[in-house]
């Protein structure tokens, strides 16, 4: 099996467990505290992975640090919103709607990087939006 597919499946399974565990945690814990605990543990996991691979922390392009930082800001905002949504509502709705981030990423790619969407790209995005709407409501 393609390594990209294997790693993506591992990510999907891990995030499925993450959503379940986050839902359980926010039943009796403030969402911001659950998020801090979750992300603190995630930093340790990522650090062990970096150490194991022997990856250079700074990389070859210093501007990448800015983009990594901006990614952290966006991730933090998304995490706060997600954990707060878990505490006040259905995990199925919160998880399903926030999983639509890929639609935003695709739209940004089209708008900012000049990526030209194929008809199949647009059809896939539309199908995903319909699927999420059906699951969430």
From TrEMBL:
Transmembrane segments: 6-26, 33-52, 64-84, 91-113, 119-136
Superkingdom of origin: Archaea
Keyword Cell cycle (UniProt): no
One Pfam assignment: EamA
Keywords of this entry: Membrane, Transmembrane, Transmembrane helix
The keyword Kinase is assigned to this record: no
Domain EamA: 5-136
Listed name of the protein: EamA family transporter
Record organism: Halorubrum glutamatedens
């Amino acid at each position: 099996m393609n390594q990209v597919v294997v790693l993506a499946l591992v990510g999907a399974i891990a995030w499925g467990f993450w959503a379940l565990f986050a839902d359980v945690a926010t039943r009796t814990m403030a969402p911001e505290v659950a998020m801090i605990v979750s992300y603190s543990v995630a930093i340790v996991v990522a650090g062990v992975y970096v150490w194991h691979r022997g990856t250079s922390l700074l990389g070859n392009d210093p501007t990448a640090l800015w983009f990594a930082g901006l990614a952290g800001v966006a991730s933090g905002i998304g995490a706060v919103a997600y954990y707060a949504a878990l505490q006040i509502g259905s995990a199925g709705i919160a998880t399903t709607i926030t999983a639509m981030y890929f639609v935003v990423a695709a739209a940004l790619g089209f708008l900012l990087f000049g990526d030209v969407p194929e008809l199949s790209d647009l059809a896939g995005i539309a199908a995903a939006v319909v699927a999420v709407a059906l699951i969430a409501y």
